[in-house]
Amino acid sequence: MRNLLFFCVVLTLFSFGKKEIGNTIKVNNQEELKSAVKNAVAGDEIILANGVWKDVQIKFYGKGTKDAPIVLRAETSGKVTIEGVSDLKIGGTYLEVRGLYFKNGYTPSNSVIDFRIDSKTIANNCKVLDCVIEDFTQLNRNKEDHWIEFWGRHNQLDHCSVTGKSNSGPTILVALKGNEHINNYHQITNNHFGPRPRKGGPHGETLQIGDSNTSMAPSYTNVANNLFERCDGEVEIISNKSNNNEYRNNIFYKCEGSLVLRHGNYCTIDGNIFIGDDNSEFMGGIRVINTGHLIINNYFYKIKGKEFRSALAVMNGVPKSPQNRYNQVTDAVVAYNTFVDCKTPWQFSVGANMDKSDVLPAQEIRSARPDRMIVANNIIFNHQGDEFPIKAYDKVDGVLFKNNFINSVNKSDVKSDGLKTQNLAMTKLSDWLYIPTVDQKELYAGFEFENIKKDVFSNSRAAANGTGAIVLPVDKSKGTINKKAYGAHWFSDEAVKETSKTIRVASENELTEALDKATSGTVIELKKGIYKIAASLTIDKKITIKSKDQKKRATVEYSGQANTPTFLMGAGGNLTLENIILKGEKNQHAFATKEKEMFSAYNLKVKNTEISDFDGVLNAYKDSFADTISIDNSVIKNCKRGLKLADENDDLGEYNAEFVYITNSKFENVQSNILDYYRGGYDESTIGGNLVFHNNTVANCGKEEKSGILIKTQGIVNVAISKNNFLNNPIKYIAVLWGEKNQQPKENTITNSGEFKTEQNLKQKMMY
Amino acid sequence: MRNLLFFCVVLTLFSFGKKEIGNTIKVNNQEELKSAVKNAVAGDEIILANGVWKDVQIKFYGKGTKDAPIVLRAETSGKVTIEGVSDLKIGGTYLEVRGLYFKNGYTPSNSVIDFRIDSKTIANNCKVLDCVIEDFTQLNRNKEDHWIEFWGRHNQLDHCSVTGKSNSGPTILVALKGNEHINNYHQITNNHFGPRPRKGGPHGETLQIGDSNTSMAPSYTNVANNLFERCDGEVEIISNKSNNNEYRNNIFYKCEGSLVLRHGNYCTIDGNIFIGDDNSEFMGGIRVINTGHLIINNYFYKIKGKEFRSALAVMNGVPKSPQNRYNQVTDAVVAYNTFVDCKTPWQFSVGANMDKSDVLPAQEIRSARPDRMIVANNIIFNHQGDEFPIKAYDKVDGVLFKNNFINSVNKSDVKSDGLKTQNLAMTKLSDWLYIPTVDQKELYAGFEFENIKKDVFSNSRAAANGTGAIVLPVDKSKGTINKKAYGAHWFSDEAVKETSKTIRVASENELTEALDKATSGTVIELKKGIYKIAASLTIDKKITIKSKDQKKRATVEYSGQANTPTFLMGAGGNLTLENIILKGEKNQHAFATKEKEMFSAYNLKVKNTEISDFDGVLNAYKDSFADTISIDNSVIKNCKRGLKLADENDDLGEYNAEFVYITNSKFENVQSNILDYYRGGYDESTIGGNLVFHNNTVANCGKEEKSGILIKTQGIVNVAISKNNFLNNPIKYIAVLWGEKNQQPKENTITNSGEFKTEQNLKQKMMY
């Protein structure tokens, strides 16, 4: 008989010292705080007085005990704001921080909250609870930091809200450099992460555990019960780069990225929910690289991503891969997951690029297929058939498919007996949650599958086991995301409703005055007439400037200095320009970004507007980033250049705009290119930008363009140029498209205007 | 209070079924055995009848339990011999094998004892105890096998003796390919491994755990209390290629290699003893690569190896190394070790080769220095000063030296405050064991050093801790290796004493008859006279053929077929030819190896002998291997070629002879080269062969040598050519030496004989 029952009777030989009630010390300023920290002993509680603490660098150290930690807390949670150039560093044992609110500032160091003070004073068994970091972002988006750095062991971030990081660097980094930091069993629990806006380049992860240099380390970090909401920073929401981490029961709500097992092995992804969107191909699921991962009990809804961003993306590896590239997938188990209304949810040998050996070095060629992988007991359910549930970019010969079920016909290249079409009934429990009507009980018993004891909702599988993530019965409440369960209890991310105020103006002075007074959401309506503007108008909030109707358009004449713009876009600026005639004097710009402090993205929307007589239409400086630029139904004429979004020229994968839409418009007599949109550097973590150039007329443009290209899109991943009319443009190429990314011109009319060229594989500068 | 004491009271709720005494089934042949295995249940014992079991492939399967294993054992341990083409495969749970003796044969499969039957029938919790595998080697040394393959989990090899593997492949392989085999906690305990003879190429490890493809796997194999004796197969006695393995309390007795942490991380090497030799630079200690290894409580005595083979060799890594090359050393801890009479025991950045970027690809350049490494609380003790205890091949900037002590002056490039010269007294306890007279108590308290609780002899450090591997008091018995504690209890490796019989002969017939009758060690004394030999004399044992004195030398005239040798060296042949005149008819060879079945090494010693009128002096075929070839005080003349040891031409690192000594001899009128000694393929696991060419005269040789080289030594690592006289040899080069290996001609006299050339870096074919 092998199974013994052990009853452990715990006796405590030495009686505990009677728990002392520590001192409570209220502090009002930095000096008092320093002194309080210096004198604190186990059990003490240091209370920061309510109010603004500006430009503080808090070092919280000491030796608490498990039963008597030293606590540093806000007098009232959320009422102590840490602002300005500030940070918090923690080093010692059993220290707890509660209730702080970081906002209106940024850190002067590498991190906002750091679980170490220096290499010798490291946190162990310390906690940060009920805190918020909001928009505490560096002034320059390319200045890198992390908002929370984990060092040491057994530290915890619990019930915190972390939102709005727009600069470079993972929001949270777990560092493993040194034996003191491995086997750390850190707890990242019950937090609310996001939104994290699109970054326009790499290094926009929300969580990174380890790095390629320490990817052999056992980390054992537990990431559980967190809500990741619209974490759109880059293609990796979470970048796992070490061993033995666990991701349990998290919700990924409409995040434009994936949970990526980038480096490291033997991780567990259990019981997570990935919710996508009908309209987005950017929201992904789990991307698998390396060895021994266990992916079970996960629920995927409307994940429509492809390749790197598919619901389950299993990559090809580089044979004998260098430490920082792609190891082969081996010994991975994908079992008991449910995929509802996803698009081609299973993609294998993603990243296979054997055809690119002439443009890439050998250590970039991913030809090692997944091996010794098991995919079993999963359910794919589609309300509308998905004929190709499996996509394979290479032979699938190392994957064992067993007892997977789909409710629609499978016409994939990979047709496995292990994926059977069957009539599966599902019941709708909420917008995103569908549960089986009956448990599907044909189960495959893989190696150690007996250890999979619970479903996605932590219900026991013992009584009534079934395929897929969900076993019956399911509590009705499970279909609702209870936001209050995540993040700081006192903090709400519900945006304050914008008051859509309208100010009517009839003169230059009124216009500038209105802009000064405007709050976010203000609409400034211009009466018909001429507005002579002599200095740039700064836009750093959400502003609409428009003539009331298209037939009575106001004219804005700009006479500012050379090389200045009419509208100067600042961080967070969001300008809609509608029904306006905008004129320059040839040597200024219609729009430009600030040259510095572009710490968050701007947006620019131009409608029914005529822009003429400028040097550049848009001049975006380095380190600036537009989320969306759209020009619709407008005319651009008699300018030297069009839109320049090409100043991120370090070839590090960064770029100046995520989405550029130019539609139903007319370009005439723009002397060089009409658009220069650039991303440089070979980097797969950026899958942008995006250009739609549709239904425009371009005439007599490009005559002074030295490159010979009218629409420059070097390195931009998604480019769609369709139904345009190109007429008498004396250039060589309308655009040079990237064949590998399936860029194809569609239904354009070309008259005396050069041609489209397609380069299959782009030569790019290696970044590492 | 953090430390609780747990008292676990184990209660058994369900009473055990009364332990049934299983059946005992004696079997006399394979059919009975098959049937017995088929019917065996937990608790059964199957007994193999004493005697020879020939050509058997035993499949031992079943389901035993912890308390009632199924046992397969010899009627009398050691009296059941498994011979011929045989193997044993084990698959199931709680199976035990005891007392078997594998000899006089080889396996038809990949392994002699395999802890799995096939990929589905794997052993778990199985044991092989008290068994012996002796000389069970493949007939061709290049045919690869393993003698013991571990698969599954929790299997054990205990008290076994494994000796004499001379073919390719690690003696023991722990396989990790698949989740069923990781976290295996195999026990390799109390065994006696070796001798394993020199192999002359790679793949001669005694133990390999994992491989580069599975090196990310956690293995947790425990290798404890074994005796490794003269395991000389190759430069790695043990090749660790996975994570979390432990090497505890083993003795490495005069093994020509090292315990190498080749791949994998976080291994523990604790309490091992490495015993070297005054006369060998081949015996090594521990070679460190990768991350997080803990090297404590080890005792090194007379380890005189350099570079790869130094007592502590810490390598440089390749930045972002490919999976099968060299990762940087990080987070390694070397503490509480003792080095007695070693030569430059600490070598750092071993393998640094930044100067070789023109002959090696980038992924071979080891420029990443050890980082975050701690070397503390160690003792270096020398009876005669060792002025350079530390050798560094690169900057040492990532190693923290703390509280290390040496009893002699340190003139190393690396002079660290952390290595202090101090008067350390040591007491001799045995030939190889020196213990401190008093504990040296200045200790550095590194991270988690408090967990180092015992010394090399498992004595507690609690009472009187000290630096070095040994704390006082030490039991006197510790200075003796009790061989009976290791390996099968019934087996002794003490060689049967050779009876050095002398047979005197006076005619050809008597000579061939004597050879037939000879046992190993026989001396055949030839009376003066002419012995006309028409067919090759086969030498497959230890034989001396000699004239009694040098002045009355017998003449052996060989008239065999073209291309046959006078003496045909077979596997294990060991010929000493002394005081003989040996003549051919121009188209035969003086010596040659067999073309097949050279499963173990031969030796050839020629003294005071004249060899003339042959095609080749020695013709060594592919797959043959000589341990030592020596020619001393002899004359070689009028031959077409000299010694050919160049048939291992696959460029896989193999070569045909380990040691070649040619001394005090004369070569005259050898028409092409006098020696062709070759090793091909870039491979660092072979650090041979070895040529000493000293005090010879070479005259009128090489005139028909097409390569223009008189002594060809391509790829041979150790080449010493000194005090020779080269006279009138019409060649271009006497030899082309390898500068990187410090090959330099010394004190040779060259007259009309070409010159020495030195190539610093050899271009070699990559093997992987």
From TrEMBL, chains A, B:
Pfam families: Chondroitinas_B. SMART domains: PbH1. It comes from the Bacteria. Gene3D superfamilies: Single-stranded right-handed beta-helix, Pectin lyase-like. This is DUF4957 domain-containing protein. It comes from Flavobacterium cellulosilyticum.
